[in-house]
Structures are given as C-alpha cells and as structure tokens.
Automatic annotation (TrEMBL):
Residues 329-891 form the TonB-dependent receptor-like beta-barrel domain. Residues 61-166 form the TonB-dependent receptor plug domain. InterPro entries: Beta-barrel_TonB, Beta-barrel_TonB_sf, Plug_dom, Plug_dom_sf, TonB_rcpt_bac. Belongs to the TonB-dependent receptor family. This is TonB-dependent receptor.
Length: 924
C-alpha cells in the first residue's frame, strides 16, 4: 500500500511539554488528531500532503509556546523543492527572493539577520561573497536542497534550551534518522526543470536525488545516506538605476531645475531627486548544487543511543551580465513633480556606457555532529551533543565581481529620461558623434575595470551537555550548559582602476532590447576579453586584499521547568526557563599599512599601501539573562489558549564589527571612510505572545494570535568628521590640490611624486561607523485556517499577518536619518489542494505587501513593492511505489519592482519568467 509509517522525532526545543523522550523503536502510537500530551513521539500514518499537514498541526498543538512546522510528505519528499518556498506558507513568515528563488526568510517583520537557523538544533554558519551584501549571519536556504529534510520547525517564542540568536524566530531544519523507521527504505527522484526565461543556455536542466536507510542487528545499528544534485539556468531582465536617487546633486555646476510643481506643504525646502543612472540589463545565470548526508546510529545497550551525522553542500553560481546605461548623476535640466522627483531630466555633453559584469559564488558547507543520549531510567536522561560546522565562500580565491565599462569617446551625447510610477522612458541624441552612431566601435573607448568581493571562512564549534529529570508525571526539570565558538575570517578586494586601452580587437556586439523605450540596443561582450587587453598593455593591477575577522566565544547555561496539571478540571501546561550567556568578542583587521592617496587621474584618487602587513585588534564582552515563560490551557475540548513571555537576542552583522579603516576619495572631494565597531551589543527583545486555537477535527484548525516585541540596541549609522592617520601616524593628505610635475599619472606602479606627502593639505574625511542607538517596538496579528473537507480529498490553507512598528520612515524627512524598521510588511497565503486515490494537486498563492528594504547611497531609502506569486503542483501515484509529478513556479510571470522615496523613483524592475518541472519518483 501507499501508506508508510513514519515516526516523528521530537527535537530538543519542540518538546515543550517535556516528558521522558522514548526511543523510536519503543514509542507509543498517537491516533490521528489525538491530544495526548504524555506522548512526545507520536507515530502517524503518512499518506502524503494531507498527513504532512496533520503532523504539522499536531506539532503546533502539542507545543506550549508558539511553534509552527512543515513536515515531509514521505521519505525524501518535502512539499516544495525549496525550503524557503515552503516556509512562506507559515503565518508570519515571508521570504526574500534572489533570481526568482526563495533564499532567506523574514519572520514577523524581522529580516534574515534577526533569525537563527539551526540544523538538528545546531547553529548553522553562513558565508557570502558579494560586497553589496556585506558579511551577515543569515543562512541562505538556496544552498540546501529539501530532499534530505524531515521537517522545518519555526520557534516564534524563546526557550532557554535553544541556542540564542533568533530574535524574530529560531528555524530548525531537522534531517531524517535511520532509527526514525526501523528496517529498509529507499527513494529516488529524477526531475527535468524547464525555465521559460532562459535565452542563451539550455532551458532544460536536471535534478536528481536518492535516499537509502536501513537498520541491522535487531535494529541496534542504523545507516542513512542522502544525495541530491541539481542544475539550473535562468535569465533576468532588469531596468533600474545604480547608486539610487540623490538629493540636490549638481556636480558643482549650474543647473536648471523647474521646481514650480513641488507641493511645499510636504516638501517646504523644494528638495529634488535625480537618479545616478538609467540601466537596462541582461542577466544569464548558471547554478550547480550538490547536497549529501550520512547518518550512523547505534544502540549498543538499551537506553544508550549514539548518533553521528555529516551534512555537506557544494554550491556554484556564475552570472554574466551586460548593461547599457546613461548617467544622470549631475543633471543640467529637470522638471520636478509635486514630491520633488525629477520626472523629466536631461544631461548635456555626456556619454553612453556599455558594461560587462561577471558574478561568481562558490560555497562549501560541511557539518559534522555527534550526539550521545543515555536514558538511565524512566525518569533520568543525559545528553551530550557536539558539532563542528564550516561554511566557505570562494575558497578558490576567485573574485566574486569583475566589472568593466566602455563609453563613447568625447562628451557629445545628450541624454533624457522620463519617469512615472511604471517603467521609465529614455532617449539620447548622438548626432554629434562621428557618423551619429553610438554603436560604432570607432566611437567607443575604455573607461574602467573593478574587482571586488569576499572570500570567507565561517566556522562554528558547539558543545552541549544536559540532564533531564522527570520528578513525576507532572513535573520535568532540565538543566544544561553549552559552549559556542564562532569564527569568521574574510579576505576582501576592492580594486577600481580607470584605464585607456585600445578595444579594436574586442568582440563587442549589440543585440535588440526587449524594452526599446529605454534602450534600443544592449552591448554584449565578455569581461575577461577586455581584461586580457588590459594585461597585454601591462596596466592590470589588483589592490592588496584586506583581511578581517571576528571571533566570539559564548558560555551558556540554562534551566527549564515543565509542569502539567489541571485548572478548573481542564488540562494546563506551563514551561519556565532561564538562560545565562557570557560572550567574549575579538575583532581584527590585518592589512598593509596605509600610506595615503595616489593622484591617479583627473577624476580618481587611489589608496596606496606600504607593503608591510599590520594587525589591528579590538575586544569587548557582554552578558545576557534570557528568561522565558509559556502556558497552554485547554478550557474546552479541542480549544487552546496560549500565552508566552520571552527575551531573545540577535547579534549584529559581522561586517559592522571589523575594526579596520577603509578610505576613498576624488580630487576636491568627497572623501569617505568607514570603520567597524567590535563593541556592538546584540539586539535584545522582550516578547509577548497570545493565541487562541481550535483543533476541531484531525488536520483542521483555526488559530488567531497577537504578538508584541520591544527591541533595544538597534544598530544605526554613526557619522563623524575629521582626519585619519596613515601607518606612520601622520594625517592623510591630498596630493591633487597642488599637483607636482608629472601628476596625475596613469601607470601600474605609483609615482612617488603623485602620492600623499606631509606638505599636502590634510584631508577631512566623512567617517561612517555603527553604534547601538535606538529602541523600537513591533506588534502584529496572525490568523490561520487549515481545513480538510472530510473524505472529499479537498482542503484549504489560509493565513495572514498584519505587522506594524512604532517607528516608520518619513519619506519627506530629508534630515539624513536612516533609522527605521526594515522588512516590516503584511503578508498572506492561500493554498487549495486535492488529494485522493493517488492524485494530488495544489494551487498556492503567496503575497507580501510593500516594505522598506534598506538604504542605498547617501542614506536614501529603498522600498520593495507588493508582490504576489502563483505556484502549482500535481502528482499521480502510478503504483504504490512509483509517482509522476509536475510543478510550476511563478506561472503568471510576476515582476519585482523597487523604488526610492516615491514610486516614480525606480530602483529595480525585474522579470524572471515562469519555471516548470516534470519528474518521477520511486520508493522501495
């Protein structure tokens, strides 16, 4: 038969109504929908998506705090191919997409950096490579396939026995174990993915996976192996701007700006905004991902279980992007609308720009863990858990971004752009170019190249010991201590070089644009072909890498008390806990000593280093007391009232803690510098949760909840003004004010006469850093309905979240404040499904309202507009062991749009196309 018995293992934090954990081979059986609080590990008959929902509902019901979950439908079969796409079906959970694929999650308005992701209760490291992303702690779900996942649990309330770091939520990814199901089991799957967006590469790519598990020697030994491999090609079309929109930027020249339409009641200063550029891009991406898991379990004697597991992923993604752009960074003429946005803007005597861009990311993740669990008696259990996990980005040393720009020789082009709340329209007059042809290679010269990005190594070592004592049937006490060593080491590169080389032999072509109202043509050429020309001219150089690191050691201890009994003759359960942590932080920056600036050309100053490596180290420490209390009361049959208080924390981003200094500047300014702050305290939140839940039939329930979070230690930008000293202790000076003979110069090796000297004017820098500045609060409402229509096979899932904060961003405030609650947005999900007689079909819709994404150049805001997406899936069981299936993502080809202060200030408009797959799955 299709039915397959799956035992649901309780994780460390899930068993809020903790009783003595029972070995899987001796677990009791809980009937479908039963509310037996004495059973931690219910055995459920799995028949696909519907039973996956029933198990998730039972997890939610049996918890004392607020917990949601998604469980596998069958061995090696998760409801969605992408874990983030599955998580967005949970109320309060929204996702961030990259390349039309879920990659990170936002919970109750708190973005990825505020949520902790664990694997089997162990903290997961993360590594990034893009300079624009910085170095965060946010785990990226795109690097982990769903085939080896048994369940994903979202803990929305804090618990003392869970590692700290999840202010919004702690998300635990639980992998299968051979003792979950004694005996032999196996599953294989093959899928072809068809991406409608692809233009250059193959539209069809493969995904393969397999799982095998077995127990031996009277179920005393168990082995489980999982492997999956996937390829994906994709294409993205983008229209937008680089550098965002800037206020009142004139470039030091006279401008003609018509501000007569500005509404002075909301914009009394008549400020106006212009974009740096208008861009039109073509992105072609190739991705490969390989995941594997190996788990060994042994029970040499009754009650003693040893588990060793290894999880790995290998991820590689490359993107080739070509861009056509105009520059409007210093407009000559413009017409502002009522808000101050230049909706009609012109620049005289400028150029068209022809960009080529290579992105490269290679990720290697490895996690090795060992667990020993000893059930000494029916009332006493000891557990020891240790793991060593590492995430590496670009370990081969390749740079994540390589950028090249060409432009029209001579400033002969007139540029015009018109902006609305839709797509912009643009035009140019190139009649003054020879032949009036901007695409003729004779009218195009070289401009610059850049190399930038991170190579990163993030290692986490954790050791935990705990003891659990069941005093009687109603009281359970758990104590434990743990140690975490969190280490991040990065090597970053930021090379920017203006070069003038011949491009006669460069393979440069122009293709027709799909949006001719913006650009009729898009340039196509390769980055490496241009860099080969630069190398042949002996002009290629790389700025020395900067080495930064952060190490945190956290010592923790905790105590939990779980009680159950009756109040007014009705069941009540409560859990109270307290966690203490002491964290020692060390931030370090290792780099060559800074000499000063090099006067490179009329537009550029370049940092110069002395070749001697020096280290800068700063230390700090802090303590945290994290209490929690939760109660669950059943005043009527199948009806629950739930309340919880907890204190949770989230640690700051890693890149904000590097102590080193980075400088940049142009002749005459501006001169900018940035410094990190290893002394940043973690964000801390006091949380209240209340919910009412009605489990009126197996797999069906209604839930309404409210939450409030008071968050302190929000991190914000701190700006200072002053000089910065070089490695010799002297203030850095500007060699471009009174240039010496031969300067500026354009060679690969600096001319000493063109480098900062003590007699040059001292530079005053605008220095940006970070600090703990503000407090804020967030409140919200969550509602969910999950209903199965009896034996008809039909069912529906509906949920929605309303969230709000006490600090909103005022788009008319031009004071330069960048403190606001990012990521806050309402969201809703709807799923209609059918499952009967071997046929399963689902239609899902996910919607997220507009939200503040963050801040771009000069502190200007970036908003992501409301987005909704339809996904579909269907499968049919040909036999008890063979299933065919099909899936469709973004079937209505929705687009993503981001804007600045006002909707007319377009930042990005991206289209991806729909993605379909067809596959077959077999189980044994």
């Amino acid at each position: 038969m299709r039915n397959l018995h799956v035992r649901l293992l309780a994780s460390v934090g899930l068993s809020l109504a903790v009783t003595m954990p029972i070995h899987a081979a001796r677990a009791q059986t809980a009937g479908e929908g039963q509310a037996d609080t004495d059973v931690v590990e219910p055995e459920i008959v799995v028949t696909g998506f519907r039973q996956s929902l029933a198990r998730a509902a039972e997890i939610k019901r049996q918890a004392i705090g607020v917990v949601d979950a998604i469980t596998a439908e069958d061995i090696g079969k998760f409801p969605d191919a992408n874990l983030a796409e599955s998580l967005q079906r949970i109320s309060g959970v929204s996702i961030d997409r990259s390349n039309n694929e879920g990659n990170q999650v936002t919970v109750r308005g708190f973005g990825p950096s505020f949520n902790l992701v664990t694997l089997n209760g162990r903290q997961m490291p993360n590594s990034s490579s893009l300079q624009a992303e910085g170095v965060s702690r946010s785990f990226n779900f795109r690097e982990l396939g769903s085939e080896g996942v048994a369940a994903v649990e979202v803990y929305k309330t804090g618990q003392a026995d869970i590692y700290s770091g999840g202010l919004g939520a702690t998300i635990n990814v639980r992998t299968p174990r051979p003792f979950d199901q004694p005996g032999f089991r196996a599953a294989v799957s093959a899928k072809a993915v068809y991406d409608t967006s692809v233009e250059k590469d193959s539209k069809v790519t493969p995904e393969l996976s397999g799982l095998v598990s077995g127990t031996f020697l009277d179920n005393r030994i168990g082995v489980l192996l999982v492997g999956s491999y996937s390829e994906r090609n994709s294409h993205k079309d983008r229209i937008g701007t680089s550098g965002g929109w800037r206020r009142n930027r004139t470039g030091g020249r006279a401008v003609q700006i018509d501000t007569s339409a500005i509404d002075t009641s909301v914009n009394p200063t008549k400020s106006w905004w212009a974009p740096f550029t208008i861009d039109q891009d073509l992105w072609d991406t190739q991705r490969q991902r390989f995941n594997a898991q190996a788990t060994l379990q042994a029970e040499p004697v009754d009650g003693l279980t040893l588990t060793a597991d290894y999880t790995m992923s290998r991820f590689k993604e490359t993107t080739q992007m070509n861009r056509m752009s105009y520059w409007f960074d210093a407009p000559d003429r413009g017409v502002a609308d009522k808000n101050g946005t230049l909706v009609d803007i012109t620049t005289f005597n400028d150029t068209l720009n022809y960009w080529a861009w290579d992105f490269y990311h290679k990720g290697e993740n490895d996690s090795l863990g060992v667990n020993l669990k000893w059930e000494v008696s029916d009332s006493l259990t000891f557990e020891l858990d240790a793991h060593d996990s590492t995430s590496k980005s670009n370990p081969d040393g390749q740079t994540s971004e390589s950028i090249v720009d060409l432009f029209n020789t001579g400033s002969f082009v007139t540029l015009n752009g018109k902006f609305t709340d839709g797509l912009p329209a643009a035009s140019f007059d190139a009649s003054r170019l020879p032949g009036g042809d901007p695409y003729n290679k004779a009218n195009i010269g070289s401009d610059l190249y850049q190399k930038r990005g991170y190579s990163m190594d993030n290692n986490i070592k954790q050791l935990r010991g705990s003891a659990e004592w069941k005093a009687n049937d109603n009281i359970t006490i758990k104590v434990g201590s743990d140690y975490t060593k969190y280490s991040v080491d990065t090597a970053s590169n930021a090379t920017f070089l203006l070069v003038n080389v011949p491009i006669t032999n460069l393979d440069l072509q122009f293709v027709d644009s799909v949006n001719p109202d913006v650009f009729p043509k898009i340039p196509i050429y390769r980055v490496e072909d241009f860099l080969d020309i630069v190398r042949a001219q002996n002009l290629f150089t790389i700025t020395p890498p900067q080495f930064n690191g952060v190490q945190e050691e956290t010592y923790g201890g905790y105590f939990t008390l779980t009680m159950k009994g009756e109040l007014g003759g009705r069941p009540i359960r409560a859990n109270a806990g307290l966690r203490y942590e002491k964290t020692n932080v060390e931030g370090s920056s290792v780099r060559e000593g800074l000499v000063g600036f090099r006067y490179f050309n009329a537009q550029g100053l370049q940092p110069v280093f002395d070749g001697t490596v020096a280290a800068q180290t700063l230390t700090s420490d802090y303590e945290q007391w994290l209490p929690n209390f939760a109660v669950s009361y059943e005043p009527f049959d199948k009806f629950l009232m739930r309340g919880a208080f907890s204190k949770t924390i989230a640690r700051s981003s890693i890149s904000a803690m590097f102590p080193g200094t980075t400088i940049s500047g142009r002749p005459g300014g501006p001169f900018n510098a940035s410094q990190g702050n290893p002394g940043l305290l973690p964000y801390a939140s006091d949380n209240l949760d209340f919910s009412l839940e009605w489990y009126y039939r197996p797999g069906s329930y209604v839930s309404v909840g409210a939450f409030q979070k008071w968050v302190s230690n929000f991190i914000g930008a701190v700006r200072l003004t002053g000089p910065i000293s070089n490695a010799a202790g002297n203030p850095i000076t500007d060699p471009s004010v009174n240039p010496r003979p031969g300067c500026p110069e354009n060679g690969s090796a600096p001319n000493p006469a063109c480098v900062s000297q003590p007699g040059d004017p001292v530079v005053t820098f605008d220095i940006s850093s970070t600090g703990n500045l503000r407090d804020a609060s967030v409140r919200g409402l969550e509602a969910a309905v999950q209903h199965v229509f009896g034996d008809t096979g039909f069912g529906v899932i509906l949920n929605g979240t309303l969230v709000d904060g006490n600090i909103s961003y005022d788009v008319y405030d031009v004071s330069g404040s960048t403190f606001a609650l990012t990521g806050l947005s309402n969201s809703a999900n709807a799923v209609v499904f059918y499952e009967k007689n071997g046929l399963q079909a689902r239609v899902s819709y996910n919607w997220r309202d507009k939200f503040l994404l963050g801040f771009a150049g000069a502190g200007e805001p970036v908003f992501t507009e409301a987005y909704g997406q339809f996904d579909v899936s269907a499968s049919y069981d040909v036999t008890d062991n063979l299933t065919v299936f099909a899936e469709g993502l973004n079937i209505t080809n929705e687009s993503t749009r981001r804007h600045g202060r006002f909707k007319e200030q377009l930042i990005d408009y991206e289209t991806y196309g729909a993605r379909y797959s067809l596959g077959v799955r077999a189980k044994f």
